[in-house]
Design brief:
seven-stranded antiparallel sheet, 7 strands, 12% helix
Length: 153
């Protein structure tokens, strides 16, 4: 689970550094003192992954229609984007791919308060199963962090 990320000087290869649909072990860690890691099984569906092996930002924000994506950039094995939402919340998200595994770094800012959450998805090498890693559950986990952040601010 603690695989080193490839150096930034490596050239992106879709086959070598691409998230693929399937079941993932998903670890969420809020980077605040006194918080614990949470591990769950999640599913990444084909519609949640773009042709380059990155999670699709628009799918992340499907339940947040007031958010607009800006500054969407890809470099090597990393993609970063910013979402600005009604009410002033701003989310900065970076995804780093390492093989079929990935990490998401989410920083939420609202009214001078910042909440920083880290997610790590490790491919389990199998398809999603009913009652286990259900389709679409990757995004509610991220949305829950965004919602928690909005409620704290």
């Amino acid at each position: 689970m603690h695989k080193a990320l490839a150096g930034a000087c490596l050239v992106f290869s879709g086959a070598a550094y691409a998230v693929t649909p399937g079941a993932y072990s998903f670890v969420e860690r809020e980077l605040q003192p006194g918080t614990d890691e949470k591990t769950t099984l999640r599913c990444v569906s084909a519609e949640q992954v773009d042709a380059n092996g990155y999670l699709v930002p628009q799918k992340t924000l499907a339940t947040h229609p007031s958010c607009q994506i800006s500054e969407d950039k890809t470099s090597g094995q990393a993609r970063s984007w910013t979402a600005v939402c009604a009410g002033g919340a701003q989310y900065k998200v970076t995804q780093k791919n390492s093989g079929k595994d990935f990490e998401l770094d989410v920083k939420m800012e609202l009214s001078g308060t910042e909440i920083h959450t880290h997610f790590k998805g490790e491919a389990l090498g199998r398809a999603c199963t009913a009652g286990g890693a259900a389709s679409g559950l990757t995004w509610p986990v991220l949305r829950s962090a965004l919602t928690r952040g909005a409620m704290r601010a």
